[in-house]
Amino acid sequence: MNKRLLWKLCGTIAVGSVALFWAINVLSLLTEHEMSFIAKEHQETLISYGKHAEQLYLSNDMDALERWLTTIQEQEQTWAAVVSSHIEPLANSIIPSQYIERFSLGRSVEWKIHLYFKENPVMDITFESGNTHFLIRLPQRMRPGAYWKGADIILQVALPLGLLIILSIILYHHVMSPLKQLERATRKFSEGNFDVRVRSCLGARNDELTALADTFDRMAERTGKLIITQRQLIADLSHELRTPLARIELVIDSAERKNTAKEAISRIRKESIGMRKLVEDMLTLAWLENENPLLNEETLDLVDLIDSITEDAHFEFPHHNLTCQLPEHAEISQSNHRSIGQAIENIVRNALRFTPQGGQVKISLEAKDKHFYLTVQDEGPGVPEQHLSDIFTPFFRVNKSRNKTPEGFGLGLALTLRHIKAVGGSVTAKNLEGSGLEISILIPRGQM
């Protein structure tokens, strides 16, 4: 079974989850990095404190320096100091000059401040002499990352939630879009629009849902065709039954007036037989249309079947010439003798009915590959070209074209077509040169 939708959803969710975790990690690191530095204005403030302390120290006014330090500590709610550092190597140790140049008692105002440390770091603004330093614990108001907790909640909760909602909406739309199309089509179909189809609305998409749409389209096509056919059959049946019923009523009225009961009974019997035949044919046709059976359970010999049909035809039509070109045997399997027999009988009877007395009907049967090819040719008036396909439609007649008014209700060839289809064959018709009609049946030989 096609599982493209499953793999598509799995791939989307897997890739989306990995991309989500990666995005959260990258954004968290970038946000933390950007929030870990002292703001420029605070850096300038700290540097200005250091320069002022250096000026007071160089003026050698220690009292003023002390008062200023006290003021800064009270103002910033922290501690501050000016200290001297002298690096003295012991035991003949050697200290590299680069280390002495970079030596600091605290952190530079440009360095990164770790947001996870509870205590504020000590900042060091070194005087130009290099061995005197202004030290101050970073005031709380200058500490970076004031919005870090909120940003962390957004990154860890709000961002994943938002992205997952967007992903869910995309997946929902991807899954529900064809289902909504199917829902609309089902509603239209239930309202009587049997031409509605779904697959063409889904474009190039190819997954389990399009397979469902294909199944719906096949169901809609078959069900719609059945409903329309049944409606037409019912309408045609009601129309066809009116005529014999009207004739019966006329016969009864005439019998009552003229007191000719015997003749009336004979006429009523004839009309009743016709109506019974009509109802039986209609029931058979409805069964073939609705059930669409595949009749492939029997093995038979076509030659024997045709011989039986022609024997009855000779008796019923003694003034017609019926010639047959048949092989000795024509055995077929996986078929149905009743369906094939009724189909061939309908065609032969039609050919004899429309052939003038003394005319000839030819039946030939030959094997071709995996099929038997049966043709029946008559010498009747033929059928207008535009009606060659219509003659297999229920209740369709071309009486004017055939210059006769035959018995029957126009169901013979319609039943023939359905019977032959039920055994896996096909039926075609064509006009012969001059006059006459040829009907051909292609019958599968089955697995011999």
Automatic annotation (TrEMBL):
Its EC number is 2.7.13.3. CDD domains: HAMP, HisKA. It catalyses: ATP + protein L-histidine = ADP + protein N-phospho-L-histidine. Its main location: membrane. PROSITE patterns: HAMP, HIS_KIN. Residues 236-447 form the Histidine kinase domain. One of its GO terms (molecular function) is kinase activity. It is a multi-pass membrane protein. Keywords: Kinase, Membrane, Phosphoprotein, Transferase, Transmembrane, Transmembrane helix, Two-component regulatory system. This is histidine kinase. Gene3D superfamilies: 1.10.287.130, 6.10.340.10, Histidine kinase-like ATPase, C-terminal domain, Two-component histidine kinase, sensor domain. It is found in: Membrane. The chain crosses the membrane at residues 6-30, 151-172. It comes from Alkalimarinus alittae.
